[in-house]
Amino acid sequence: MDDNGFIRQAIEDLKPLLIDSGFQNLKLDAILVSLNISKTKFFRYFGSIGGIMELTVYHELSACYRSLVLKIRQQNNKEHVLHTIIAHRKKFIDNNPILHIYYATKKGFTKRFEPLKKAVLQNENDLLHGMLAQCFYSEADIAFFKQKITNEI
Fold first, then answer.
1. CB-based burial label for 127 (10 Å; 0-12, 13-18, 19+)
2. Torsion 76-78-79-81 (CA) sign
3. Quick check: 92 pLDDT over 80?
4. Total structural domains in the chain?
5. How far apart, in whole angstroms, are the C-alpha atoms of residue 75 and residue 6?
6. The domain that contains 98 carries what CATH number?
7. What pTM value is reported for the model?
8. Between vectors from CA 125 to CA 129 and to CA 114, what angle results, nearest 5°?
């Protein structure tokens, strides 16, 4: 298995553990057992528990934004697109256990989770920008959407 395949498999293997224990109760020993890897290999690939959490949330958010592209590509009305993005994102998060747990509990995260929260926010902003650019929106339109949607994120 190549490195990308290993990382994708590790994310998939981590999901049940993350769903069972949540972000704040995730322990390194449980991750190592779940992924069946050594501590050295874990840190070489992910750097920290926060690193694998970030990759897992990013993986799930990417799926959300990929599905959104299909919904907004043919729409021209900015307000309708804005409503579609907000509604679809909320529905996707509500139906995705990883994202639901993350967004439902992030306000209660301790300070040690600040890097994770910043990284997820940046990743989501990057995904939003990429999705809107892929749908041929101008930078001015993208700025409009980001300003409106940032309140939802």
1. middle
2. positive
3. yes
4. 1
5. 38
6. 1.10.357.10
7. 0.90
8. 165
Residue count of the chain: 153
Q: Where are the alpha helices (DSSP H) in 22-113?
A: 28-35, 39-46, 49-72, 78-95, 97-105
Cα–Cα distance for residue pair 26/42, rounded to 1 Å: 14
Residue 133 pLDDT exceeds 90: no
Q: Distance between CA 134 and CA 108 in Å, rounded?
A: 34
Per-residue pLDDT at 116: 96
- Judged on CB neighbours under 10 Å (0-12, 13-18, 19+), 132 is buried
pLDDT tens sequence across 16-39: 999 999 999 999 999 999 999 999
| CA pair distance 49, 63, nearest whole angstrom | 22
CB atoms within 10 A of CB 94: 12
Instruction: Give the residue numbers spanning the domain of 44.
Output: 3-149
User: Which amino acid is located at 104 in the chain?
Assistant: A
The closest alpha carbon to 99, from 49, 48, 59, 128, belongs to 59
pLDDT band, residue 114 (cuts 50/70/90): very high
